[in-house]
Amino acid sequence: KYARDFVWSDSHATRITLAVATETMPPLPGPPASAFLSAGAETIKNYPHLFPVITPIKKFAFRNYLSTHPNRPLVDSVLRGLNEGFWPWADPDEPDRPITYDGSHRPIKDSRHMQFIRDQRDAEIALGRFSPSFGTELLPGMSSIPIGVVPKPHLDKLRLVVDHSAQPHAPNALIPREKVSVPLDNLHNLGQTLRDLRAKHGGAKLIVFKSDVSQAYRRLPMHPLWQLKQIITIDGQRHVDHCNNFGNRGAGGIWGVFMGLVTWIAIRRERIEGLGSYAKMLRLWDILGVPHEEPKQLFGEQLTIIGFEVDPNAMTITMPTQSRHDLLEATRDFRMGQRLPLRSFQRMAGWINWSLNVYP
Question: Is pLDDT at 191 greater than 80 in this prediction?
Fold first, then answer.
């Protein structure tokens, strides 16, 4: 009951939502003064074409919608991030950190993976999110980090991994964990919304939907002083990654704050009840320049949300049958006594822990 937060009652206080949390959040930081005096700052000055700040977000519309938001320091910090690039709470003054560091040496042995990386590079360059190659040598103040390829869960697709945590001199080591978290909405919030709607509309049939922002994190720009820390090396050629990257420890916090403000607009300005108007929400995203693709807009009388089957009419949240079967099979296989690395135990523990949300 207390660990899982999956119990609802009229006597319990409602969890704060991300949109409401934006009204009291501290502002996002900019780069510290020391970063502007670094060797990297000189590189940016000498090669400004390598460090653009790009985003599809329509900043004028975003700013106008937030004109009545009560937390002006937070709003101003996000607007600054959209114009100048975001800074992920990092302290760049790490002792013994080299001015320029090449940590990109991680061979890709699978030819299919290597071709996937090249295709991803070409797509990112075409979108303006990677710079074209600027040669084979790093410039002062740059850090190149290793990349890899992993399969997407439950899909026959691959995903490019940029390892911001690779030691030594990992960019993520500069970002304090305690600074980056935001109170993301979860299934408890959804359950409370369903309870509220049921109380208001009685036995009316409810439809649940979920909308996924296309390439979400990548839609936000990073500050040029941070772009220096995420140089991508492919086939020996160097590229600057201009945008927010999933591997960055601060990426989720930056995206969460931005999306919290978008949701605040939907609730406070557009009056979308319980975010219950599918078409109206997507029209708002169009106005704000938040990209979305049709295959990722899902709805129905039952829907799988963050891995759980939500039925708003039966008022139940459970595991899909196939997911439950897969977990049981994996648990049986895991007991066979084979010698396994620690990470295998950690993954299994995480999988089982996830299922305990609905099977306490």
Answer: yes
* Domain positions in the chain: 18-186+217-291
Residue type at position 70: P
The string of pLDDT tens digits covering residues 38-74 is: 999 999 999 999 999 999 999 999 999 999 999 999 9
On average, the pLDDT of the chain sits at 91
Bridge partner residues of 309 (DSSP): 304, 318
Query: What does the alpha-carbon distance between residue 28 and residue 22 come to, in Å, rounded to a whole number?
Result: 11
This prediction has a pTM of 0.89
- Strand, coil or helix: 106: coil
CA angle 245, 145, 306 (to 5 degrees): 35
Compute the radius of gyration of the chain from its Cα atoms. Answer: 22
Question: Taking phi first (over 0 means left), then psi (-120 to 50 degrees means alpha), and beta for anything else, what does residue 305 get?
Answer: beta
Which of 261-273 are b and which e, b meaning 16 or more Cβ less than 10 Å from the residue's Cβ?
Answer: bbbbbbebebebe
Query: Per residue in 79-92, is it b (16+ CB within 10 Å) or e — as a string?
Result: ebbbebbbbbbbeb
Number of residues that make up the chain: 360
Residue 26: Cβ-neighbour burial (10 angstroms; 0-12, 13-18, 19+): exposed
**CATH class entry, domain 18-186+217-291:** alpha beta
Distance CA 331, CA 350 (A): 12
Place of tokens 């931005």: 258
Distances (CA, A) of 138 to 74, 96, 112, 143, 214: 35, 19, 27, 8, 31
Distance CA 102, CA 121 (A): 19
If we measure between CA atoms, which residue out of 235, 199, 243, 195 comes closest to residue 218? 243
Eight-class DSSP state of 171: G
